[in-house]
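User: Please run a holo structure prediction.
Assistant: Happy to. Please share the sequence and the ligand.
User: Here you go; the ligand is farnesyl diphosphate.
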Amino acid sequence: MRERRLRRDAIPRHVAVIMDGNGRWAQARGLSRAEGHHAGLESVRAVVRSAHELGIRILTLYAFSSENWSRPKAEVDAVMDLLDRYIDEEVDEVHRNGIQIRTMGQLADVPRRTRQKLDEAVARTAGNDQMVLCFAFSYGARQEIVDAARELAQQVEEGKLRASDIDEKLVSAHLYQPDLPDPDLLIRTGAETRVSNFLLWQIAYSELHFCDVMWPAFRKEDLVNAILDYQARERRFGLTSAQVRSGCPEDA
Ligand code: FPP
């Protein structure tokens, strides 16, 4: 019903998702946390399909944070296995649908088998242009900014760059996926209202949507609800409402 009211000409180009609530979803059902992540994988499959159907061009999923390494080993192993499984079971369909897989994060810390699978999936789908599916894995936004700062400092040290040349554009160009536009919409599931070290630089002007649905229960209708919420917002990027409506920053 609600989908009919979606404006197809105003679908957010880049949607980023913090997939939270697997553990609580499992706990409420007397299941293990690993079973919660397993159920969360079904939501990943469903949401990738739905995003593709809706015409979202870039979907970035926060699948594992730098901080998640501190969780019990069994839980960490379970998430690695699920990523392996997603790649084994879904890459054929993802590839058929013209979806390009990318990753962002400290992949050097990821077990070799998982890293190889990810690398193969990235290489196999590199020529696709219908949608980008980016897994933030072993990812932390502060580390991403630190890495960019180090690269720029190195260039200054080598005399290739002057400190005064460093601007927002140059910092953006040294992030992990510099050619991706910033997210238009950031969704966090699981009834928490924080951004947890995700895309801190890139979400400066993103619209934020927090929903109570636990990630394993999140489906197309929840994605559509998030987009409807997004479409009801006025994105002003620091301008006044009158300026945005007239389409001219000179107008008061
Ligand atoms: C957060 O929920 C979720 C994670 C840390 C892992 C995300 C993993 C998946 C969605 C499944 C695997 C999919 C891929 C593609 C690897 P939480 O465990 O913090 O939930 P809680 O806050 O209820 O404890």
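The first helix runs from residue 22 to 27.
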